[in-house]
Design brief:
Keywords: Signal. This is Secreted protein. The protein has a domain of 91 residues. The chain is 82% helix and 0% strand. The protein is built from 4 helices and no strands. Helix 1 packs parallel to helix 3, helix 1 packs antiparallel against helix 4 and helix 2 runs antiparallel to helix 3. It starts with a helix and ends with a helix.
């Protein structure tokens, strides 16, 4: 009887240990899925942000260029709000701010090169954050 009780206790202990190992495996699998999901989210955000940041305003119609640039800036701002990655969010916000603060003067033939260079510098930071 005592041997049977010991055997049952042993088998129950093995079951508990097995259950704990299975729970740990499930938890590790969940963490792996979460990590993969965050990586996919980052790739998606980067793809969308770089596409928006690559917008080049048409300087032949400065008013339309201003409106379109500011619209792209709003879309970038919305993407930045979705990012859990601080570095990525700040990089997207940098491009968004540059585009949001554009003026008609910035888009004039005498100034567009300087503004474009500032935007390109921000896009380079965004590209780096996406790497």
């Amino acid at each position: 009887m005592r041997a049977r009780r010991t055997a049952v206790t042993f088998l129950l202990a093995l079951g508990v240990i097995g259950s704990l190992s299975a729970c740990e495996s499930v938890q590790q699998a969940n963490e792996a899925v979460n990590d993969a999901s965050q990586a996919l989210d980052k790739v998606t955000l980067c793809t969308e942000a770089l596409a928006l940041a690559g917008f080049t305003p048409d300087a032949t119609d400065p008013q339309k260029a201003l409106e379109e640039t500011q619209k792209k800036a709003e879309e970038l701002g919305a993407l930045a709000d979705k990012s859990a990655d601080t570095t990525l969010r700040e990089a997207i916000e940098g491009v968004s701010t540059t585009m949001e603060q554009v003026t008609l003067q910035d888009l004039s033939p005498s100034s567009i090169a300087e503004w474009s260079q500032e935007k390109l510098d921000r896009v380079a930071r965004l590209t780096s954050a996406c790497a």
